[in-house]
Amino acid sequence: MELAFGHPKSLKPIQTKYCPGCGHGVIHRIIAEVIDEMGLQTKSIITNPVGCSIWADLYFDFDSVQPAHGRTPAASTAIKRMLPDHLVICYQGDLAAIGTAEIIHAANRGEKFTTIFVNNAIYGMTGGQMAPTTLVGQYATTAPNGRDPVEAGMGYPIKVCELLATLGGTKYLARGAVNNPANIKKTKKYIRTALEAQMRGEGFTLVEVLAQCPTNWKMSPADAVGWLEQNMIPFYPLGEIKNTLQPAQTDAAAGER
Length: 257
What we know:
Blueprint: H1 24-38, E1 44-47, H2 56-59, E2 63-65, H3 72-82, E3 87-92, H4 100-109, E4 114-119, H5 160-164, E5 170-177, H6 181-199, E6 204-210, H7 214-217, H8 221-235, E7 239-243, H9 247-256
Parallel strand pairs: 1-2, 1-3, 3-4, 4-6, 5-6
Antiparallel strand pairs: 5-7
């Protein structure tokens, strides 16, 4: 009997610590599937910092490093430079705040690792505080009346992909979501494109993934999916934000899929 579907080898078959409806588990699954398909389990290294991302090393069945809060791009830079033949993934949700300097300069230098930026518009592990990507009017424990960019001086949500697109070192930037099967499939395609580009040594690649956080949004998992669709996707448009990969390489990768 031919096995048509199974558990990814790069993902440990253990119970998750993530909250019900959290998007991290789906993102883990996508990454593991792509790594298996590329045959790179034994040559993959993930760096994951403080926050909900810190649990990632419990689930991925390959090497991991836990840098200080926000310093994942710096650690990924060192690892990739020392092991250029390895697949290095910077997995984080804190890059738009405490990790801003590291991600901007790594991107500008064109460091050849791939970042998976999980954007759930809130700080999850630390109690639901306002994040740099929190939407205007969205409630948080530090914005009980909703994010007010003007009167309360809270500033505006940061669009990470669009910001990094201005830098010369960035080669591939895309934004996906894990709210439904169609978007999950597209997100997997973006992640594979980014990882393949990394292994070709083309430059800095990043995939932003919009994800649900029902616990800190104070919603049911089903309502959180609807809120993401109605509020986050209109503000953070999905798709390839920047793609300056070699055309022949891009076409070949697309053909393999």
